[in-house]
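To: structure subgroup
Subject: Chain for Friday's discussion

All,

I'm putting the inputs and outputs inline so they're searchable in the archive.
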Amino acid sequence: MAGTTLGGTAAFDAGDAARALTAALRSLGTPERAVQEKRYLKSDLEFPGVTVPDIRRAVRAGALRHASDLGDAAAWPRIDGWASDADFWVRRPALLALLPGIRSGQPDLARFTAYAEPLLAERECFIRKAIGWVLGRSRAATRRGSPGGRKNTWRGCRA
């Protein structure tokens, strides 16, 4: 997807972002810690040997570099597609992508309802928590009880 544009700016490329984060983590890790992690977790996976605080800093820095991509209206069709993806780890960020709008006082309740209603029967706790986070942080949703007046339907979706 590199080289394509969203609203006249370079499009977010997940592969490029993942490679950049992987490189950043490798530079922060130590071989000794990587060996300990691999042994402790009894895993065949490759470990970069990075502390949790360093992982958080690297991810936060990477996210800030790409935060403006969510502000581009042309990104929303892609995010809309995430909301119905088969993988719940893809559906969850679709819900969480609504948080910046809520924080800025411009909640997109119609989009939240469109994303969340099909997920209400979801048993995966991470999806239910994401629904709860968005509901809990939306002043408009809290003021009215719930989007679309479905107060009882949203019960149990807590962070």
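Points worth raising on Friday:
Residues 11-69 form one domain.
The radius of gyration is 18 Å.

D.
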